[in-house]
Amino acid sequence: MADQIKLHAEQRQRKGQGKGAVGRLRKQGRVPGIVYGHEVTPTPVDVDALELYHALHTEAGLNVLIRLEVGGDTHLTVARDLQRHPIKGETLHVDFLAVDEASQIGAEIPIHLADEDDAAEDGGVINQILYSVPILVKPLDVPNYFEMSIAGMSIGDIRRLEDLADQLPEGAEFEVELDRAVVTINAPVTEEELEALEEAAGIEGEEPELVSEEGEEAPSDEDEAPAEDVPGGES
Fold first, then answer.
1. Which residues 6+ apart lie within 8 Å of 211 measured at CB?
2. In this structure, which topology does domain 106-201 adopt according to CATH?
3. What ranges do the domains of the chain cover?
4. What is the sign, positive or negative, of the torsion defined by CA atoms of 47, 49, 50, 52?
């Protein structure tokens, strides 16, 4: 089930939410954000960037449950609508959605394949189609991932989402159809077949276009995140 991490947040003053103010926060190693949701008045906050990084890099990933301490109160939250620097990857802004332990929330759960060494022994190619699946689940029951064994699969075999149904927590449900394919074993494509496919697609002999990122201007750290003004929804 989802990990739970404690994280302390400082409440920001409304008058200190301009571009200059959030820019100074980021230079001090803080990440601006907002907490809203279940029994919480939308409140601008900031958290330590390193502590936030560690909180979001457990096995649970973005599904980690964060017990956010703000002004003496503790709220059970999940991180939503993270905004990252397009080049550095640093978190620029985060929404903390306060949730009710008794009510279902939406979560995107990764799908891991297992027993790959015991599959496709007839020379087939393992093709994972679905890497994650959205579910509705109570916060304390959110699984870190689903695991699908593909042992014994051969060319032409398909494993579907319904094969993971027994791993759903009680009361949880998939938000997509159960007949969605998760993984297939395909016959290998010969060089002649590949050339025929490329010719049919009209890409034979074409060179890929290279696009340089040099000279692109990254957004300034002084830019306030748009989610500051309008709280983001649950993703």
1. none
2. RNA Polymerase Alpha Subunit; Chain A, domain 2 (2.170.120)
3. 4-99, 106-201
4. positive
Residues with Cβ < 8 Å from 58, sequence gap 6 or more?
A: 3, 5, 64
DSSP sequence for 2-26 = --EEEEEEEEPPGGG-SHHHHHHHH
Output phi, psi for 164, to 5 deg.
-105, 0
Q: Which 3-state string (H, E, C) describes 103-158?
A: CCEEEEEEEEEECHHHCCCCCCEEEECCCEEEEEECHHHCCCCEEEECCCCCCCCE
The tens digit of pLDDT for each residue in 94-121 reads: 999 999 999 999 999 999 999 999 999 9
* Spatial distance between the Cα atoms of 96 and 187, rounded to a whole number of angstroms: 46
CATH architecture of 4-99: Beta Barrel (2.40)
d(CA 14, CA 31) in angstroms, rounded, equals 16
Given the DSSP bridges, would you call strands 91-98 and 30-37 parallel, antiparallel or unpaired?
parallel
Distance CA 49, CA 59 (A): 19
Res. 234: pLDDT tops 50: no
Q: What is residue 34's three-state secondary structure?
A: strand
Mean pLDDT of the region 128-143:
96
Asked if 85 contacts 97 with a C-beta cutoff of 8 angstroms, the reply is: no
